[in-house]
Amino acid sequence: MDSQQRSLCFISLAFLFITCSSAEFLIQQVTQGRGTENNSSYSLDANLGVTRVLRDERPSSKIVTIAGYSVIKGRGEPYESSVFEAAGYKWRIVLYVVGNANDGGAGYISLYVRIEETESLPFGWELNNVDLKLFVHNPKLNKYLTVTDGALKRFNGVKKESGFGQLIALSTFENTNEGYIVQDTCSFGAEILIVKPAEVQEKVTFISNPPDNVFTWKILRFSNLEDKFYYSADFLVGDRYWRLGFNPKGDGGGRPHALPIFLFAQGFGPNAVATNTWGAVNLRLKNQRSTNHRQIYSAAWYPIRSGYGVGVNNIILLADLNDASKGYLVNDAIIFEAEMVKVSVTNIVSV
Predict the structure, then answer these.
(1) With 0-12 CB in 10 A as exposed, 13-18 as middle and 19+ as buried, what is 202?
(2) 3-194 CATH
(3) How many Å apart are CA 173 and CA 181, to the nearest integer?
(4) pLDDT tens readout for residues 44-91
């Protein structure tokens, strides 16, 4: 222990037996935080599992402002705030301005929250999954130093208090260049939330070769088709309706020399969970005289909105299509086929 720490410990003990002359100072307590714009900038510093984050937003549960820090500087006994409500329970902030020596806080600010009015709680009460963040305001940066260890807290009849013995080093806190004390005023805060474990989860399953996964579309009078997109009827595979689409005069980089084919995702089936949908498909232009089909494989996440298509601009050159000996255009008709080889199905299930 260095000389500075020994001095601070000596002062803390001395003040337990000495009654100081009263002094006037103002303690302002604010229990309702006001929101700010969601344009926070962050800086991080981790130390022994504790994370310190600078954020813009005020703490949501409680703020205590001390206008007169120099009056209480060096006092060993804690300051206890008024009772405030957060997450449906009553609490106090407990502040040690020279650190809680029993919690390794010598040379630091120590800050805690303590659950109050527990006599009204049922016998054997226990409060779990409490997300606790404690704060030190930095007026110079107009930000709040947010201190947390990421662990959910548990309160019960034996353990009613939780916080950080080493919230911030006094050497940093009292350094005027750091900006935590301005005009002898400083502020601390708390944010208390109860994390309710999820009872359900969204489960995405990939189904290979789902039922009714082959759709055939025969287009008649091909030579009379106009320069526009044509669409098949909708067909249901998995949780979603799909359709085929093409322009007989070509599309994109294949225009005007090649025939395109696309698979479009449409609306959802009854009782389906509307999410992005995985669709893997074999798109075919059928050869009507042999098994020499033209085929491409396509796989993609299809967004929730309808009308998003994935495919190819060139499943066959129009010159080959119009060559009667090739067997793709027969009696002025072509046949497309979509074989859905894998789709995703989403369900909401219990954890």
Answers:
(1) exposed
(2) 2.60.210.10
(3) 7
(4) 444 458 999 999 999 999 999 999 999 999 889 999 999 999 999 999
Closest CA to 275 of 242, 239, 251: 239
**One-letter identity of residue 181:** I
For 168, 268, 269, the CA distances from 234, given in Å and listed in that order, are 63, 11, 11
* Sign (positive or negative) of CA dihedral 155, 161, 165, 170: positive
CATH class of 202-350: mainly beta
Q: Which tokens hold the place of 329?
A: 């255009």
Buried b (16+ CB within 10 A) or exposed e, 134-172: bbbbbeeeebbbbbbeeeebebeeeebebbbbbbbebee
- How far is the C-alpha of 45 from the C-alpha of 51, rounded, in Å? 6
Q: Which pLDDT score is estimated for 26?
A: 41
Residues 6+ apart with CB under 8 A from 99: 8, 105, 106, 107, 108, 109, 110, 165, 166, 170
The values of phi and psi at residue 236, to 5°, are: -100, 125
Retrieve residue 62's tokens: 């409680």
Three-state SS for 286-309 is: CCCCCCCCEEEEEEEEECCCCCEE
**Residue numbers in the chain where pLDDT is lower than 70:** 1-48
pLDDT at 232: 98
Please determine whether the domains at 3-194 and 202-350 fall in the same fold group of CATH: yes
Residue found under tokens 């046949």: 335
Instruction: Give domain limits for the chain.
Output: 3-194, 202-350
Question: What pLDDT, on the 0 to 100 scale, is given for residue 49?
Answer: 84
- DSSP letter at 150 equals S
Is residue 169 within 8 A of residue 108, CB to CB? The reply is yes
Instruction: Give the closest residue to 184 by CA, choosing from 199, 170, 174.
Output: 174
Distance of alpha carbon 345 from alpha carbon 62, whole angstroms: 45
Beta bridge partner(s), residue 285:
294, 336
